[in-house]
Amino acid sequence: MSPTQLFLAFAAMLGAVVFLSFTGETGLSAADDSGVENSSGFSLSQIFGGPVDLMGEAPDKVSDPEKLRRPEFYGWKAKHPGVAAYGDRILLLRDIVSNYPREVQYPASYRVASFDPTCTPRPLGDGEALANVSVGRADLESGMLAFSTATLVKANLYWLEQNYKKSAYIDDEDIIGDHKGLPIVNVIVTDTSAPQYLVLQHWLGKVLWNVVPAPGVEIAHIAVIGPGAALSPPPGDYDVQFLSTRGSDCVPVVARNPRQTWEMFLRMDGVDKSEYEQKARTAFTTYDFWFRQHFKRSAEFDVVGFDTTQHALVGPVPETPIPYRPLTGADVLVTEFDYIFVAPPDVRDPFLMQAQLDMLTVAAGGDLGLLTPEPMLRETEEAVQ
């Protein structure tokens, strides 16, 4: 099916109902602080054949949580349903929460939130407990997608390059690139000893933080630190700050103190690893200095999180699992991106493909064929005679 046919099928399917919204000047309404609602009145799974299970092995079939993680260069890589806990431990999700959904989760709406221009987190208040969550990245996909124009341009350039080479492995669908949904980190808070000041930090990529408080937990403040993120905040009377690590003039890049469990130390026998170790320690020293300035304790203080994390527990293991607070149906805060979607790939990808083809067509002066012209046949004088 051609891109045009896909787009027409997409338009007919949607009719007057708009399932996706994104910022940018491509014809759809731009996001604003009022939020973008899915007001269709019926579930997306009804259209697309029911929920899709992307979670792999069923949580109730995993018995040893240590089998859910392995060392990687900058720390542990966990996989669902492993839960990061105090003391670098890993637990099973079924022991922490109940009713965890196996289908992809789609927020109902979102609001765009700006990074705090002061680059300064609110001080820790008297009697408040610091809930210190720090991860490298996440990989548990949601149904929300956010990316920059630069990402879009990169996908366009790759598609053009492969078409110019007449690659047998490139198709119209490849123009979309590898745009995956924002990965989720569920932060399950069970500490009821004091109001919780959550510091949610990540190093690479983007993270959609979903805070799941147990009954009796009081949230005092949430500071989200990283290059770009989203947050599903639980109900409560508190403020949320987004602090950017994108530029050197704001917050330093989030870093962890190197540990002997890192693959950096485990699999480099006979190799000079001093350069890697020194860079990691320098990055941590820089970030730790900033963290101590604002929170009066080390960035490793009661820290929870792995290099790759899906779930984190702040507090003790509950006597009985607490109800999971799903992202589906939630209102999400998201930092400023050029494009933001909340839609299944079946809806999102055909539209995105056509939008990118339109962008390339404009760049080509109205004819996409000019960018990849057919070879010219040159006739000799003898052939003419």
Provide a short characterization of the protein structure.
By secondary structure, this protein is of the alpha/beta class.
How would you characterize this protein structure?
The chain has 385 residues and is an alpha/beta fold. It has one domain (20-143, 181-343). The chain contains 7 helices and 19 strands. Strands 6, 8, 10, 12, 14, 16 and 18 form a 7-stranded mixed sheet that branches. Strands 7-11-13-15 form a 4-stranded parallel sheet, with no helix packed on it. α1 crosses α6 (345-363).
What is the element layout, followed by pairings?
Blueprint: H1 3-14, H2 44-47, E1 69-72, E2 75-78, E3 82-85, E4 89-92, E5 97-98, E6 109-113, E7 129-135, E8 140-141, E9 144-147, H3 149-164, E10 183-189, E11 196-202, E12 207-213, E13 219-226, E14 229-232, E15 239-244, H4 263-266, H5 274-295, E16 311-314, E17 322-323, E18 331-335, E19 339-342, H6 345-363, H7 381-384
Parallel strand pairs: 5-17, 6-18, 7-11, 10-12, 10-16, 11-13, 12-14, 13-15
Antiparallel strand pairs: 1-2, 3-4, 8-10, 9-19, 14-18
Helix pairs in contact: 1-6
